[in-house]
Amino acid sequence: MRQSKAKRWRIEPGDETIEQELVRDLKVYPVVAKLLVNRGITTAEAGRDFLYGNVGDLLDPYLLKGMKEAVPLIQDAIATQKRIVIYGDYDVDGITATSLMYRFLKRCGANVSYYIPERQSEGYGLNEEALEHIIQQGTELVITVDCGISSYDIVEGVRDRLNMIITDHHTAPPDIPRAAAVINHKQPDCPYPDKNLSGVGVAFKVCQAVWQERTGAEYLDDMDIVALGTVADVVPLVGENRIIVREGLKKMMTSPNMGIDALVAVAGLQGRKLTTGHIGFTLAPRLNAAGRVTHATRAVELLTAADMATANTIAEELQETNLERQTIERGIHEAARQDVINQGEAAHKVIVVAGEGWHPGVIGIVASRLVEEFYRPSMVISIHDGVGKGSCRSIDNCNIYDALKSAEDLLLQFGGHKQAAGFSIEADKIPALRERLAAYCEANLTAEDYVPIIDIDSELEPGEVTVELVDQIETLEPYGMGNSTPVFAINPIAVQDVYLLGQQKNHCKIILQSQIGPLDAIIWHGADYHREVFPDERVKVAFSLQKNEWQGRISPQLMVQDLALLDEQPIKLTAEGLREMYVIVRSIFRSATAPRYIVESEVLHRHPDNQTNKEAMLSLDVFKELGILQEEATDDGMALYRWCHVKEKLELITSLTFLKYSA
C-alpha cells in the first residue's frame, strides 16, 4: 500500500459576464469577482452582504422557534435564584457554548453551574444517571448546549421533575423532545433563515435574546469565544457565521478573553494576525486535548477564568495535555500506518486497522491522517476487553455510514454521517468487517474515486503572483467551510532549487522560476519532494497564497496543495552504478545512524556524473530493500537511516526497485 500522490485538478469555469458585472457594481478586482462567482455569489447584493456584512446584519434571535418560551424561563430563574445547570459537551463547540452561557448567566447574577459528560465513560449527549444526579442537587432548570435534540426518551423520563431548555444545532430527529423549550434552527417549522449555526452560535442567540429583554441592547460580548467554537465545529462560514468569526477574530487581537489570550501565548501566536487556520489547527486542538485525554471541564475553567494568573496556569496545563495527546497520537498513527503498509492489497479498497489498548480519544485523528496519506476510507479501532471501538473517516465519493450499514450484522452499534462515523464491534469480527467493507467499496467506488480532487479557482501566469494579488484575495477572509481558501494553479513552471525546512527537516521549500524573480513554494510535511523533484525540471503546481515577511521584505509565498512533474525522465539502474553508490553512501555514515536528510543531501551532491539525481535517490530504495539501510526515527520525529552490515551475499534480483528500472 503506497501513499496517494496523484491528484485530479478541477478548474472552476467561472462566468465572465457575471464577473464583469460584479467588478462594475462592487468595485472589486477581477480576481475577487471570479472568486465570488466560484462561491455561488452572483449578484451585487449577495456580494455586498458577503464582503461587508457586520454585526448590524445579525438576525433577530426571536426568529428562532422556541425562543419566546425559553427567555421567560431563564429570566425567572435568574430573578428567583433558582439553581441552573448548563449541560454541555466535551468537544470545542460544546466547551465554548458552555463557557459562553456560564459567563453570560453569571453576568446576569444567576445561580448557575455546568456539567460536561466524561468522553469515554459517559459519551456524547444527555444521560439519565447524570440528570438524576443533577436533580438530586436541587436543580430546577437545565439548559443544554450543543446537545439534547436526539434525547426524546431521556427528557421524557425527567420532564415532570425538571424544567429543560434544549439548545442544539444537530439534525433534528422525527421526535423532538418535549422539553419546556427547544431551540434548534433545524427543527421542523423553525422560520430562522440561517441554518448553519454551530452549537455555540445557537447559545449566543439565546444570550442575545435574554440581554435584549434585560437591557434593550444588543449583546455582542464574548464573540471571540463564539468564533472559536464556530470555526472548530467546521460549520459553513457564510451568513451569520461569517460575521461572528470576522468580529471574533478582531476581538482576539484587541481585547480577548483572558483564557484565549493565555492559549494564544502558549501556542506561540502572540503578536501575529490570527486567522481561522490558527483557530482550527492550533488553538482548538489544545482545548480538544482536555476532552480527549483528561476532562473537558478544564478547558471551560480556562475560558471562564477570572484572572490572568489562573488562565496562564490552565493554558500551560492544556499545552502539556496537548503534547501528551500528540505523543499518544503519534505512536498509534505510526503503528496504524505500518499495519496499512503490511496489509498491502488487503488495504487497497478500504483501510481497517486495530490495536489493543489504543487510546479511543485520538483514533478519529489517526483515521483522518490515514485518509490524508493514503486517500482511502479509513477505520481505526481501539480494542479493550475483547470489544473494539472504531472511528471512521472517508473520502469524497464514499458514504461511510452506508458502508457500515452494509455490515451492520457484524456491529454492536454504529452511527454517523457520510464523511465520519463511529461503531463498536466484537474484536474477533474485525477481519470479517474488513472483507465486507472491501466488497462494499468494490461495488460502489470506481478507480477514479480513489484519486483526490483539488478544486482550482483560477490559473495564473507566474508574473501575476504578487503581494498586490494577496492583498486583493484577503478581502474574502475569513476562510472555512463554504468559503474555502482560494486555490490557484501555474502550469508550467521550472524548478530552481529544493530545500528541507524545520527542526526535523520534514517540510520542503521549492524555489520556482518566474519572469519577476524566484517564487517560494512551501510544502508542509513534504520531505518526499526533496528526493523526487530536482532543479531545472518542469512542474505544475496548485497552491494558496500568503505573505511572507523576512528581514523587512514582504513577498508572496505559495502554500502548495499539489505539485507534479510534467516530464518523465528515463531511468536506468545498473549493478555497476549501484556499486558506486554503495561506496558513496557507506562513506556518509560516521556512526551507525545518520539523519535521512543528510544522507539524501550528500547523495544528491556526490553521485557520479553518469547518474541522474533520480537514479541516485532510487539507489537508496534498493539498499533498503536489500537490508543495507533501515529507516528509523528519533523520539521527536527526526527521520534517520541506519547502516546495517549484511554478511550474506547481496542479490540484486531481490530488489523490486532494481528489477523495475534495470530492464
TrEMBL record:
InterPro entries for this protein: DDH_dom, DHH_sf, DHHA1_dom, RecJ, RecJ_OB, SSDNA_exonuclease_RecJ
Domain DHHA1: start-end pairs: 349-442
Instruction: Report the domain of life of the source organism.
Output: Bacteria
The segment(s) forming the DDH domain are: 83-230
Is Nuclease among the key words of this record? Answer: yes
Keyword terms, alphabetized: Exonuclease, Hydrolase, Nuclease
A GO term (biological process) for this protein?
A: DNA repair
Record GO terms (molecular function): 5'-3' exonuclease activity; nucleic acid binding
Q: Indicate whether Nuclease appears among the record's keywords.
A: yes
Per UniProt, residues of the RecJ OB domain are: 456-562
Family, per entry: Belongs to the RecJ family.
What name is this protein filed under?
Answer: Single-stranded-DNA-specific exonuclease RecJ
Q: Which organism is it from?
A: Veillonella ratti
Source taxonomy lineage?
Answer: Bacteria, Bacillati, Bacillota, Negativicutes, Veillonellales
- What gene does the UniProt entry assign to this protein? recJ
